[in-house]
Amino acid sequence: MSSNPSFPVTNKNISLEIKGNKTDVVICSYDDHFFVIATQIGTMGTILKARKDEGMLTEPTFDVSVIVGKRDEPMLVVCARQLIEQISLSGSTKSLILALGLKDHSVETVKGIVAAVVENRLW
């Protein structure tokens, strides 16, 4: 894990192995959103946006949408939903932009990515 405090955007870089695949994770914190890249293939892959919707009389809901990339891969949406829920539970109201370039779309991979991001969170 490394952090670069001199860069204008607060960020962390993590490299780990998930199910035998080297996984690089970059977490950036902007004023209005978090940007997370998790890649096993060296590119950003599918890009998703997640945000919390709050109603006055209802429990909050979480909206996740695919901006670019695989629209038929439910585990990518699950990953984004898990991360925005963690962000919300911490009290932050920022939205999330998530880029996932994964070789393996299994539950274990998603759990590993979520755990790594939450452990090294910037919120």
UniProtKB/TrEMBL annotation:
Q: What is this protein called?
A: Proteasome assembly chaperone 3
Q: Which gene encodes it?
A: LOC115699608
- Which Gene3D superfamilies does the entry mention? 3.30.230.90
Q: Name one Pfam family in it.
A: PAC3
**One biological process GO term for this chain?**
proteasome assembly
Source organism of the structure: Cannabis sativa (Hemp)
